């Protein structure tokens, strides 16, 4: 099963910490978590305006949303994410510009060798897929996927949904 994911974190630097993670499977099962143990001293004005303000914690919970949602520390997110992954026989993870996402995903388990056994250890990146299809990887993802909405970039679940839509469109090119 392909699962598309995104993370939000405290900055593009070596000691960054996770703020949120969002995942959506090919069959639209979703997982969204906000971390309460991220390093708040690393939050600058850009992160506050573009990431923190788009966390679901800032919006009323939508009872119609078909999503596993949670807030917790890394240990509790890890436990719930492990349970969620049990819904799938095999998992192939796809992201966008995944250099940070993949390292932070592995960090949830403390080490790449500790990720769930059904999660394939090689991640895949739609940036590379864009390039291979002859499309500039710097393209606006929402426009490419024809996803017009009031949703905000830099919400991990929204971005995961955009990654999935881009992947699906790229498959047909």
Explain the overall architecture:
- The chain has 173 residues and is of the alpha/beta class.
- It has one domain: 2-Layer Sandwich (Nucleotidyltransferase, domain 5), CATH 3.30.420.
- The protein is built from 6 helices and 6 strands, in the order E-E-E-H-E-H-E-H-E-H-H-H.
- It has a 6-stranded mixed sheet with strand order 4-3-2-1-5-6.
- Helix 1 links the parallel strand 3 and strand 4.
- The longest helix has 16 residues.
Descriptive key words:
globular; 6-stranded mixed β-sheet; 6 helices; single chain; alpha/beta; Nucleotidyltransferase, domain 5; 32% helix; 173 residues
Supply the CATH architecture.
2-Layer Sandwich
Helices and strands, in order, run as EEEHEHEHEHHH
The whole-angstrom Rg is 15 Å
Strand content: 15-25%
General form: globular
**Spatial order of the strands forming the largest sheet:** 4-3-2-1-5-6
Mean pLDDT: 91
CATH level-3 fold name? Nucleotidyltransferase, domain 5
Q: How many β-strands, per DSSP?
A: 6
Count of helical regions? 6
Helix content: 25-40%
CATH class: Alpha Beta
Distance between the termini: 21 Å
Count of domains: 1
What is the fourth-level CATH superfamily? Ribonuclease H-like superfamily/Ribonuclease H
Q: Give a short account of the largest sheet.
A: 6 strands, mixed
**Stretches where pLDDT falls below 50 for ≥5 residues?**
61-65
Secondary structure category: alpha/beta
């Amino acid at each position: 099963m392909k699962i598309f994911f995104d993370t939000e974190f405290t900055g593009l630097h070596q000691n960054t910490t996770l703020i949120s993670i969002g995942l959506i499977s090919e069959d639209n099962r979703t997982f969204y978590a906000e971390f309460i143990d991220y390093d708040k001293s690393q939050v600058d004005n850009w992160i506050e305006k573009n990431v923190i303000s788009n966390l679901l914690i800032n919006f009323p919970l939508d009872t119609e949303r078909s999503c596993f949602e949670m807030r917790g520390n890394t240990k509790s997110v890890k436990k719930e994410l492990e349970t969620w992954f049990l819904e799938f026989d095999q998992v192939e993870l796809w992201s966008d510009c995944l250099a940070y996402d993949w390292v932070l995903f592995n960090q949830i388990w403390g080490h790449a060798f500790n990720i769930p056994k059904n999660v394939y250890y090689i991640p895949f990146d739609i940036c590379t897929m864009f390039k291979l299809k002859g499309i500039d990887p710097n393209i606006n993802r929402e426009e490419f996927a024809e996803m017009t909405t009031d949703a905000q970039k830099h919400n991990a679940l929204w971005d995961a949904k955009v990654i999935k839509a881009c992947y699906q469109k790229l498959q047909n090119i």
